[in-house]
Amino acid sequence: MSQKPRPLLIVEDDPALQKQMRWAFDAFETVLAEDREGAISQLRRYEPAVVTMDLGLPPSPGDVTEGFRLLGEILALAPDTKVIVLTGQHDRENALKAVAMGAYDFFGKPFEPELLGLTIDRAFRLHDLQAENARLRERQGSVLTGVLTRDPGMLKLCRTIEKVAPANVSVALLGESGTGKEIFARALHGLSSRAKARFVAVNCAAIPEPLLESELFGYEKGAFTGAAKQTPGKIETANGGTFFLDEIGDLPMSLQAKLLRFLQERVIERLGGRGEIPVDVRVVCATHRDLKTLISTGQFREDLYYRLAEIVIDIPPLRDREGDAGLLAHAFVQRYAAELGRGALHLGDDAIASIEAHGWPGNIRELENCLKRAVIMAETNRISAQDLGLDKVEDNLEHLNLRQVRDEAERRAVVRVLARTNGNIARAADVLGISRPSLYDLMNRFGLKREN
Predict the structure, then answer these.
(1) 366 alpha-carbon distance from chain centroid
(2) pLDDT of residue 143
């Protein structure tokens, strides 16, 4: 059963141009409207993701007032709709005004159907990505709300978090800075039986070594100069809940032995105190450092590692998460546009291409900061690669053509198998799971000669 064509609303009062556009965009279910009232009626009925519209509409086609009124109504009724405005060839002022109001793009008349068709395809692609973004946020449980992904590896990691969370085991979260380790630590807490108790976090790299011991274990009144009253430490404060040790790789050796004793005995002693205090907490730790290397160089205790890392979860960097940079970027734009009152902002094609090409060494934290800055600095409703401070790259849509992708994959497979079988057609066809005539057809299509 073939998929039903998607509706494309065309708002145009010229019958000849209507006919041309219906013919040019026959891959879609072209829905026509001649004026503002008709366009709103069709919008409510078909809910199209993309609209093309002329700014000059009846009753005064020579005036743009009715067109701007329609644009405002479309964006008010369906803010996610991508509107492509058609203007006079030299009417750049009104075109830019339309984009500032929230239009996706503009084209001057007369236009090249192929170029307009490319823009329509991109508009549908952006609408789908934003819709998927929203669906993912709704589908995920509240404790994993901060994890927005469609990467198979990350989705598997989320399932692992869900399995491990109810078990009362220590978990080590390993990954580069900015990959979201604390989000997963909070998810482990929120999905556990300890969810109603406290989640207490300490960053071992952020507290000076002389203060870290008292921060972790607390102190009695008079234990040192300035200790004016008895003060529980962070571990004790987390009793009944989850204690998160961030950047555990930076924990000084002097405290590693004391932490190990706590993990073994589940009791602590405050500084200046003599009594043992039993504490029931689940310990989750995280670090961007290679703990195995630290162990080999004598900077981290091996026995402590095995106490902390009953379960080890590796979090991949953003550059290894297929498609997630673009997905997260759209989410950050929507969030900060709403927070900062910037209206309907969206990422331009050059911005998306630059985001996908960038390596993001700072991972999600770097991406988030970059998008927040761009939302603040963007002068129009479209964020460009320049607004992001990234190099502009060529967005080659040919790479997104499925037929070319399949052909290239088939060509590589045929070349590889022929090389491995030393050109034996019968053997190569058997390995590829196709008939010899089919293999000959593929070789002819890809210009591969049979070796004599």
Answers:
(1) 12
(2) 59
